[in-house]
Amino acid sequence: MDVPIRNIDTLRAEIARLKESERQQSVAISNRFNSLSSLLSTIGSLFPKANPATGSKGFFEQDIVSLLSRILLPFTLNKTIFRNSNFLVKALVGVVSQKASKFINEETITFVWDKVKGLFSKKEEETPEHRGIPALSETY
To answer: Per-residue pLDDT tens for 102-126?
Structure first.
């Protein structure tokens, strides 16, 4: 409230109003943290809940790879590629990598690993012996 203070009485009234507001807020905060269950529910409300309608999982229902990528991806990018960047760039990298980390899970890591293994196994199959061509030591 923007009440113009013109004399000592309005100043005292405003101080009394602010003290009452402070008392009400301190009571509300103490009620929020007065027992262990209310403290745990307050901490639990910081983490997103599972939403079956959108298909999103809760924070603790993710696999270990997803949880680690939420921490390691921004940390790694800010310590390597964006080492000499300013605060805004590092904050933006943190936000974008948090959003990107939801796509990193055990299934995608396994898929990429299988593709990489497939590339190396194809190179092994392309040696002359595997194509039916005799090796040089066999022709002499």
So the answer is: 788 788 888 888 988 888 886 655 5
